[in-house]
Amino acid sequence: MDKGVKRILKLTGYLFLILLAGIVITLVYGSAASIRKFGLGFIWGKEWNPVSGHFGALPFIVGTLITSFLALLISFPFSMAISLFLGEYFKKGLIAKIIESATDLLAGIPSVVYGFWGLMVFVPVMRKIEMKFGILPYGVGILTASLILSIMIIPYTSSLVTEVLKLVPSDLKEAAYGLGATRFEVIKKVILPYTKSGILAGLFLALGRALGETMAVTMVIGNRNAIPHSLFAPGNTMASVIANEFTEATENLYLSSLIEIGLLLFVITVIVNYIGNKIIKRYSV
Amino acid sequence: MKKILVLAFLCLFSIGLMAKGIELLGAGATFPYPLYSKMFSEYYRITGVKVNYQSIGSGGGLRQVKNKTVDFGASDAFVSDEKLKDFPAPIVHIPTVLGSVVIVYNLPGVKGLKLTPDVLSGIFLGRITKWNDERIQKINKGIKLPNLGIMVAHRADGSGTTFIFSDYMSKISTEWKEKVGRGKSLKWPCGMGGKGNEGVAGVVKQIPGAIGYVEFAYAKQNRMNVAALQNKAGNFVLPTLENVSKAADVDLPDDMRVSLTNSSAPQGYPIVGFTYIILYKDLKDGNLSYEHAKAVKKLVWWMTHEGQKYAKPLDYAPLSESAKKRVEKILNSLTYDGKPLN
Question: Which pairs from A176-180 meet CB under 8 Å and 24+ separation?
């Protein structure tokens, strides 16, 4: 029995590796035509012109990175606050329960619902703000997409960090209290240093989610295939351009370029994960 | 337990029996989907032939025809001479209805906007950026245009609608032809993209000062303001079903692969195009059985004749008599394994 379980587990592990390799091979194979034609220049090419057959991924790479990191930046204070509330201040009780399930629920909402809500409620608000500032009131754009994304990724950081906060040994905290530290001082000097790697792990989990988010972003980013010149300008992301243009990409080179964008997104995710792991290792206690 | 099993088995069996009649498989354009699904459900009622149509987009439809995985394909754009060579065997284009693309706008208090080709291309090229620009004001005497920025909304996803629109723009503006060109997806000089007709319509409805292009039915069902366009003959025409049908009152080529935009018909609306069913000329080339080949021919004949009565209620412009004549000729030229298909 023991052997059987071991074998099954091993098999599942290998199967996963094979699956991953299969995805990479398919992506590389599918993007061969585009790689041959544009080479590395594809990565910093600014032009995306399906009519003339010139393709470059830079506008989408820039759009993806800006929206993801901006979303991370915006969501961080909120997810930290929620985690501290649930993991330190109010570990038990009805309110904690409600808030906890509410944040978990945020993670369960389908992204198209976020997109729709963003388009119907959030975009008009942004438009009003833009009109006050005298900017062309698109409403949609990089900032709008980042804000929607930040709401979507809050539960990923907060639920992980909450768990990590609960893991801080109580003798450490009690010792600090014994020395006369206030609650804030305990958080600042004991809990946060102790949980640094856990917080970073939560952030990278959220970043991974933000990088690949498609539907909600597509609906509010404005879908302009050029490098955005301001936060209020419409732009586009890698996942979103694939979703938009895949169905009608009839020419080989066009299709292949879209697949190469998928490959690049994969590579970027791998790089982010790798850096994330390095950082987490360095700060882990 | 046993009884339930037997019952379930019987149910499955009867479903199997029902499906024994011929079932045709088609895939392609999304634009005619509302009409096709109405036509196919009526056709099933009348003849018992089931048609399974997947609206995956024109590009996908053509790919499926190329891969011989469907009985018929559907496309909003006709296949260019160059691309025809990619198909393993000769194909035919059979128009079913006319579609039109209309210019919708959102200007509070303004109705009955008129646009000339010059102004339209100026706006979509990003040259004209204010609604009270004198070039727009000059052709709209009697309307007070607001001092409002123009926001261009276009399709973000590849689409036949964009193809017809850009085909028209390429005809009326050399600058457009050189800088942007014609295609299902474009490198847009300005503006922002919405996903699907509903995306563009949504942007235009929400933003004062926005202008965009959508399919006729979309504008009508959403009661949006539609601009009258100056056609080749110099008349300002609104996209009514009549004016759309009139645009096809020109000399049509035998293979029906024709761009109808900027039609020379005096009352013809300028941004229109056929939507097509795509078949192999010799249906055996598409891996169809003889029965399926016959059924497809019958179906398409019905769609282009009796089925036309379903077009108008759904805001599609039916084929003109002269177009029907051409369609009959094409359908009669279909073969199976080299022999005429009857």
Answer: none
